[in-house]
């Protein structure tokens, strides 16, 4: 190639050729929806990071034992989590402009005493305009502080699915990941640095199966069918290579890949790209699951958008998984201008 540059000798600019890809400038401004995070537990600065990187809407999930100080957990402890999110939601929107919907649920990561009392109360909460989803919930193989038998867990998950069905709400399923084994363990009692969870109160697993994480998802799917819930109203969050084929081939659920703590669960934009290649973008979403108890990254979803394109996914498919699918299921970001 003949250089027309006035540089003293040829530079890289003289060696560029026609294979340079056409860059997807529109992705820089593509609005996106985070369908599962705990942003109300983050700092103001973290929530600003969502706004600065183009978040158009999010589902803030007020469910999880991490934030209830008392163990075992009582119904009023979970109610506090729901009420706290309801209390702060409008101020968060006003500060950062993105739309916020709430996910309210009973997480099974720790046993809740008298869950029926909570389920009764939940019925009324589900009628609120700001509640856009039930969850996160789903059978978990082992609990913190107080074990919860599989049958009881399944009943609580199923009852929440029935409530979701009655209120026309989607369900965010917490599907357990197979934890990525690192080569060398930490000292006993250290837990996992980056995840504020005391290792001491961890209980023995209640699911005895070769693949407990997948078995938990199978039980959730049974509960979903028993509840008569439309499968397209269920979003299995924490999709991973362990549950992808089962959920795609044996259900009509959506799958959401959690990319906000890849260091912990090993799921990255590459997994999302592989799933889109294999199954198409129609039932795929991406979420961050950012929370204050975890080393998480509010920029993760924006990074994943750019990374998906680098991995060969086209702009239309990216827009589908980060904006259009969430909009369809959660009825958020309705008036977002869609570039392209
Ligand atoms: Zn979560």
From TrEMBL:
Q: Where is this region: Disordered?
A: 1-20, 172-199
- The keyword Repeat appears for this protein: no
Q: Name one Pfam family in it.
A: TatD_DNase
According to UniProt, the name of this protein is: TatD family hydrolase
The molecular function GO annotations come to:
hydrolase activity, acting on ester bonds
- What stretch or stretches form a coiled coil here? none
Q: Which residues cross the membrane?
A: none
Q: Where is the composition biased (Basic and acidic residues)?
A: 9-20
Enumerate the InterPro entries for this protein.
Metal_Hydrolase, TatD-like, UCP005295
Query: What keyword terms does UniProt attach to this protein?
Result: Hydrolase
């Amino acid at each position: 190639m003949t250089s027309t540059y006035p540089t003293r000798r040829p530079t890289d600019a003289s060696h560029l050729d026609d294979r340079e890809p056409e860059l997807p400038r529109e992705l820089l401004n593509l609005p996106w929806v985070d369908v599962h995070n705990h942003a109300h537990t983050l700092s103001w600065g973290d929530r600003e990071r969502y706004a600065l990187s183009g978040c158009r809407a999010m589902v803030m999930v007020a469910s999880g034992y991490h934030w209830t100080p008392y163990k075992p957990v009582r119904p009023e402890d979970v109610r506090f989590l729901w009420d706290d999110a309801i209390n702060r939601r409008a101020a968060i929107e006003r500060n950062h402009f993105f739309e916020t919907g709430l996910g309210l649920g009973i997480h099974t990561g720790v046993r809740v005493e008298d869950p029926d009392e909570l389920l009764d109360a939940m019925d009324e909460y589900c009628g609120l305009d700001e509640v856009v989803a039930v969850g996160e919930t789903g059978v978990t193989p082992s609990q913190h502080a107080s074990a919860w038998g599989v049958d009881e867990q399944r009943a609580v998950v199923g009852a929440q699915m029935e409530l979701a069905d009655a209120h026309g709400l989607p369900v965010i399923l917490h599907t357990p990941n197979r934890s990525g084994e690192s080569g060398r363990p930490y000292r006993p009692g250290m837990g996992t640095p980056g995840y504020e969870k005391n290792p001491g109160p961890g209980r023995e697993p209640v699911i005895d199966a070769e693949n407990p994480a997948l078995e938990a998802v199978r039980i959730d799917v049974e509960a979903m069918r028993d509840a008569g819930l439309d499968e397209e109203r269920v979003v299995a969050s924490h999709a991973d290579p362990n549950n992808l084929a089962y959920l795609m081939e044996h259900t009509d659920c959506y799958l959401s890949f959690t990319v906000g703590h890849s260091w912990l669960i090993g799921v990255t934009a590459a997994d999302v790209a592989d799933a889109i290649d294999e199954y198409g973008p129609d039932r795929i979403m991406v979420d961050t699951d950012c929370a204050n108890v975890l080393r998480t990254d509010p920029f993760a979803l924006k990074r994943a958008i750019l990374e998906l394109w680098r991995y060969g996914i086209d702009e239309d498919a990216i827009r589908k998984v980060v904006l259009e699918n969430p909009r369809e299921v959660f009825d958020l970001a309705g008036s977002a201008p869609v570039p392209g």
